[in-house]
Amino acid sequence: MFDLPILVGIAGTFFIAGTVKGVIGLGLPSISLAFLTVLIDLPSAMALLLVPSFVTNLFQGCVGGAALVIFKRLWPFLLMATGTVWVGALAINRFDPALLSGFLGVLLVAYAVLSSSGFKIKISRHNEVWAGPLFGAANGLFGGMTGSFVAPGVMFLQALNLSRHVFVQAMGILFMVSTLALAFALQNNNLLNAELGVLSAASLLPAVLGMVFGQRIRALMSESVFRRTFYFALFVLGAYIMVNAIFKYSG
What we know:
Elements: H1 4-24, H2 28-39, H3 42-48, H4 50-62, H5 67-83, H6 85-89, H7 97-116, H8 125-146, H9 153-159, H10 164-188, H11 194-202, H12 204-220, H13 223-250
């Protein structure tokens, strides 16, 4: 399906994305899609990230000892985030791929700007009851359309003022269940085939190597400095995807 230069690019992409995830606990789908959509179409890129994203987030979601507490507290949010993915995925066959790529770019830019500016929202336990399903539904819709499950789900988790370790584990659980839902949605929309599945499984190796490398970097460097660098890079990549999508759509 893909020639050698693209395969090398895919492997390099997952190594970089795994490195980012190893340092700050998120970013594998966002970074992967940002690079992959430069090389290949968005639906194929979404299919390729399935195995690396699911396995790395399964590990992240199982480590920390708070999984049961997270599920008991956040199940309405997680349920809606998972259940609405298939609705968003319906847009893949109904809209121009350039529009969806552009939407991904908008999400990346918005997340980078809000996060780097220090913008935060706060949600009390009382308001969490109704806010969780709303944020979950929006996260599932956006994730189904773009393959990125960062916004606005991570913003919701940040607003709950969870401890750092619980927050990281909660992100892993959110991304894990959302990726599983995306796999079913892509399969139902005939966007996932055996060849893409095999290549996705093969992409797990560079992703895991990158994740281990990133964890070592995290032990050696300032996480705050890396976060600022990450958000700047995410902004540049998102802006590039937006501009590229505009040229494709207008052309």
